[in-house]
Design goal:
Length: 180
Amino acid sequence: MALLEIITAPDPRLKKKAQPVERVDAATAKLMADMLETMYEAPGVGLAAPQIGVLKRIIVVDAARDGAPPNPLRMANPEVIWASEETKLHEEGCLSLPEEYEQVERPDKIKVRYIDENNELRTIDADGLLSVVIQHEMDHLEGTLFVDHISSLKRNMILRRLTKVKKIEKGNKRHALESA
Ligand code: GNR
Ligand code: NI
């Protein structure tokens, strides 16, 4: 097991489209395990491979409620094969947009087909938080972030704040190196 570094915005790697997985082999299963470990440590309820710099269509999710037993899901090549007409607003956050939250509207319920960690084709029905998180993770595979679903005014505010954070962090690193 290994912890991976999570990329934060703005970063061109978060805007790229991820490529399908041919088959889930041992290396893919290992990547899924490392992604889950990284997600739990963050902590988060989902993680997509592009967030750790891997442009493959792989996501992991655990939307179990606090206190409930863990329910890790490992998905390769996820596809939404049905979505409800009914939509819902849900407050979203993203490990790649630290400390930023906004309401996003998405289909309430979905049916998803994916390949699991044993290279088997599966289908799952999702609603509530699980539905939100799967849709959020699948967006990352298209280079889309939750801020792409909100007004440009709110998006630009969030991205400006994150740019500022990166500038300050860069300055902090430089000072640390110079005084070492
Ligand atoms: O940890 C996360 N929480 C969350 C909350 C509401 C909607 C979506 C999410 S996903 C996020 C982790 C993440 O950034 N995954 O890509
Ligand atoms: Ni995210």
